[in-house]
Fold this sequence. Notes:
The chain has helices at residues 4-12, 44-49, 74-89, 102-113, 131-137, 157-165, 180-183, 186-203, 214-219, 269-281, 286-295, 322-333, 354-365, 396-405; strands at residues 17-18, 29-31, 54-57, 68-70, 93-97, 119-121, 145-149, 169-172, 206-210, 225-229, 235-241, 247-252, 255-260, 304-307, 312-316, 340-345, 372-376, 390-393, 412-416. The protein is α/β, with parallel strands linked by helices. The strands form three sheets. It has a nine-stranded mixed β-sheet, sandwiched between helices. The protein has a six-stranded mixed β-sheet with strand order 14-15-19-16-17-18. Helix 10 packs antiparallel against helix 11 (286-295).
Amino acid sequence: MQNLENLYHQYIQGHRITTDSRTIHEGDVFIALKGENFNGNNFVLQAIEAGASISVTDDETYRNHPKCVWVPDTLRFLQDIAAYHRHRLGIPILGITGTNGKTTTKELCNAVLSMKYKTFATQGNFNNHIGVPLTLLSMDESTQFGIVEMGANHPGEIKALCEIADPDYGIITNIGEAHLEGFGSYENIIATKKQLYDHIRAKNGKLFVNAEDSLLMELSEEIEKSTYGKNGSTLKGEIKQSIPFLVYALRTLKGDLYICTHLIGGYNFENAMAASCLGFEMGISPLEIQKAIESYQPSNLRSQLIKTSQNTIILDAYNANPSSMKAALNNFKEFRADNKMLILGEMRELGENSVQAHEEIFNLTQNGNFTQIILVGDNFEHYRNSSNFIRHFSTTDELIIWLKEEKIEEACILVKGSRGNKLERIVEYL
Length: 430
C-alpha cells in the first residue's frame, strides 16, 4: 500500500469521506467497506459516476483503475486514515461511553462546549468501529473540540476505538448489564468500558466521574478527574424536580443556579451534571451552562414527551436494557396521571440472562397502578395470559393492527423498548 501520509494529502485532505454510495456529493471520497450483508466494492464505479473523486477499494479488479486507490483492507484504511487525521488536527477529544445515557450526555456536552468552542460531535449512532472513524474524518481545520461517542457490544471494543480516536478526556456514564450475549459476562462489560479510563490514564488526560457511582470511583482511582454528584464531589448539584421535566440546582460560588431542562426523569440528572462539570472545567460560565442545557431538546426517540390529540406519550424507544428499563419504569411511577399505561418492547441481546431480566421487569410493572400493560416480543410471551389488564403481541405489527381497532384516549403512556422493536411506529395510532 502507498504511504498513508501520501495517500492522505493526495486524496483525503479537504474531501468529504463516505461509505455510502447512495449519498455521493461531487468530489467525495468513497471507501468501499464489506460486511456480512453488503459489499461496497460492488458500487465502486457507481460512486465514481455519481461524482466521487476516487473510490478506495480492496478489490483486485480495480487495482489499476485510474479513479481507484487499491488498499489491502478498506476498513483498516478507514481507521488508520481517521487516526492520522485526528492527530494532524491536534484538537482535544472527549470520549464518552457507558451502558445508558451516553448519547444524551454527548448531546448535552456538545451543547455546553458549543457556547465557547466550534465543536463536532458524533452524529446519530455513529459510535462503532466504522462510525468513530467517520466522525473523526468529519472534523476539519475549523473544529476546536471533538466529542466522540463510543459504543461496544463485545470485549475489547473500547480499546480499539480509543486507539483510533485517542481521547484526551473521558466520561463513562455508568456500567450496567447490556449486550450480555456479546460480552458473555458483566465482568467483561466492566473490563471493556474501563478501557477508556485506561487510555486516559496512559495519556495523562482527565476524567469526569460521577462521585455517586462507587464502581466508577473505584475504577478511576489514581487518575486525574473532576467529579460531579450530590455530595463529596468537585461539582455539586441537587435534583429539585424530576416530573415531568428535570430541574436541578448547581452549587456555584455565587449560590445555587437552577437549571430547568427538557429532560424527563431524575435518571437524567447524572447526564446533565456530567455536561455541567465538563463546562466548568473548560471555562464556560455557569450562566452559559444553564442556557445551553435549558435549550437542549431531546430527540432520536429518547425520553421525548409527545402530546397527541388523544394522549400524552413518553417515547423512549431507541434502546432498552435491564437498567434503563428499570429507571424508566421507576420514573414513570412518579408521574401523576389518572390513566397510566405501559407499552414495553422486549430487551434484546441478553443471552442466558434474558428470562430472568424480563421476569424482573414484569414484576416491576405489577405495583405501579397501571390501567393497562402491553408487552411486545417473544421474550414477554410467558406473561401473555397473566391477568386481564395485560396484553401481549409477538410483534409491533400485530400491536398496530390492534391499535387501529381499539382507540386509546386520555391516557399517559410510557413507550419503551429495544431498537429492534421499532415501537416509535405506534405513535401515530395513539
